[in-house]
What does this fold into?
Amino acid sequence: MAICLLGLGSNLGDRTANILEALRLLRRQAQVIVLRHSSLHETLPVGGPEGQANFLNAAAVIATQRWPAELLAILQDIEAQLGRKRTDRWGPRTIDLDLLLYDQQVIHTPELTLPHPRMHERRFVLAPAAEIAGDLRHPALQSTIDELFTRLPPPSPSEPKLRVFTSAEGMQRETLRLRRLSRRVGVVPTMGSLHEGHLSLVQAARERAEVVVATIFVNPTQFAPSEDFSKYPRNLEADLQALSAAGCDYAFVPSREEMYPEGSSTFVEPPAVSQPLEGVCRPGHFRGVATIVLKLFQIIPAHVACFGQKDYQQAQVIRRIVADLNVPIEIVVCPIIREPDGLAMSSRNRYLSPAERRQALALSQALGEAERLVAAGENESETIVAAMRNILRRAGITRIDYATLADPETLAEVPRVEGRAVALIACFVGTTRLIDNRLLGPENWRA
Amino acid sequence: MAICLLGLGSNLGDRTANILEALRLLRRQAQVIVLRHSSLHETLPVGGPEGQANFLNAAAVIATQRWPAELLAILQDIEAQLGRKRTDRWGPRTIDLDLLLYDQQVIHTPELTLPHPRMHERRFVLAPAAEIAGDLRHPALQSTIDELFTRLPPPSPSEPKLRVFTSAEGMQRETLRLRRLSRRVGVVPTMGSLHEGHLSLVQAARERAEVVVATIFVNPTQFAPSEDFSKYPRNLEADLQALSAAGCDYAFVPSREEMYPEGSSTFVEPPAVSQPLEGVCRPGHFRGVATIVLKLFQIIPAHVACFGQKDYQQAQVIRRIVADLNVPIEIVVCPIIREPDGLAMSSRNRYLSPAERRQALALSQALGEAERLVAAGENESETIVAAMRNILRRAGITRIDYATLADPETLAEVPRVEGRAVALIACFVGTTRLIDNRLLGPENWRA
It folds into this structure.
């Protein structure tokens, strides 16, 4: 068996999917065993036309009984299967597979040069390779990958820094490594389809931590069978580009199988604050949220986690879980980010037709009316709720899950606004369920 | 308000309880606020008669409007309430309360010397003080507590090293500190009432980690109302002495309120492997186990945790929880420790009358018979289980919760021993419920 080091890169299409698919095709080859692969490192394109997209680059270590020329043919075949056209030498490509090292062989033929001639000077090759194969030796330079990597000049400030992990074990190992280096870590759990609200959470995490990890996972266990799990918007490429631009350091993008492997059967039974409101309307929802959030906090044992106040009850549920289960993480709840006209930003807003988009304004208007009434001295919940419902109904919203005033910690309904309270609304605009909320009370306070 | 540093010590009776009670009495004083207190450090007695027990020492920082002489009187009153006799200057004492610092005051009267005259040379004073008040200054020596502590000569090898934490927050902070120092941490969760089986787990943890934390907590949520929670044996003093002798570094000894404060309502819903056997006989038991173990793994984020194979199903449940929830900890399951005659060690064995103690031998004998039958080529579960039950019944054991052969991972009953299996028994000997198990199969394997 020969031990080989491969380089993988993609800067066209869904780059993550392309690299994972190349690894999957490689695993299906007879006499090829993929021993491990690195995370995906975002890097600037080298050469080629201006304005090319950034690459994601990875490395893999394989064991094989194939000869170098056979292995090269396999790699080229996988490139072809993934739509790579070899006509434009420096153009964008769905996939680029390079044979970097084949045991300690040194080969110079027109078809193949081993070790790969430029690997020792390329950060985008050595950084992922050092992650998984630091001890492998370059036979010509008599140095290990680690040594070659350490000798590189420092990265330019314009170099992107995002790294994408798809494996829980790799992400966890990296986070624990960062903690050993005394780096303060912040995490922003998301379901992707990122908007300004999410990016404000990344910003909040950057203000509180040296390293920021965003997670992207549409969690099936928090959707009921009747809900929109399968049609929930997904656009990993746009999300990764937004995270990179926002200065995020890591994205954790696991598959469903990675998070819920066959046989997985432990769940977190959420606290009492999960029972009213969403707990009534979406049975099982918070059990799924509680479980995935606890899992993410174990995979990414960060110092601080940022959540949006938009999902007010969720934030209170998570605070309570963290307190009840002694999870050593600080929970920060960040203000709702709204469109200029007041609509709370949500990934689900993109479901709305233009007419529904106008209707949806009634949520923030109803909450604004509640705030106005309280400021004017009204404190009877009945009166305030009636005004909120009126605004929703006048906008043509008839399917109201709840429009209520609640205690900000327990989320129990309050008959009267005394001190702090929260106004919360969940309703359907067309077939789209939207939620929004506003903090009420005598002074400015934060969730 | 004056900021004061107090020293607390006990080497008689339940030392932990004495110190906690002194703090409780102090909190009840008007114009005294206990700001924080340290963990309890085990130390050798200084002076006095030979053969005195080791001390537990702690420090507390308080804020007070009382004058020094008033505060001294309060401390002496609390000593008297806790049974301290001041006749024997160096004798063992239930409690010793010292006023070490009172702001920056320097006082020399026959009744009171401030700062305490020997504090700067005493490890048993400075170690706990540095834990909570490293920045306080000694007014005469113009040094901080941290500086005085650092200047001490290194502790003698004979000095005990056990530290007792009663607060989850303090224990967690200390474990995270150890991890930042790259110390490998092992944890041994127990319900106290320690026997050789527990101490073998401490030993196993010492072999796998540089620092060992044992936890002692009789977890109410894993007992059904009908079970023996209130009469479960408790002997903290003996447990701490055993842990100290076994070379344990830390004991975590929380109160019920510390682990389940008012309003705590998040639980872990245990995995499928929790459902058969104990899951049938003790409904809710594994929900309590799952919850407390997850909490302990958050409070003490160790690298490795050791459990006994005696609670075989529990060990499988915990392994599954750790895998399902991605907890970054290695679970080690250690062999059952038995009395010379074969009885598996258990804290509940002390409930047994001499006659019951003889009856109880039938459990290990029945499991030995199962092993013998399998070794002799028998593989029908029905035959083997009948033989096991026969041995139990012949010993007069009639209340058998189960005597069964199960798959070692899922714990589902197996009709036949093919490859690995586990024989498990749970039955009542008198009113005492005992469990035991044995690994069966073609080769030696470990749980």
Notes: The radius of gyration of chain B is 26 Å.
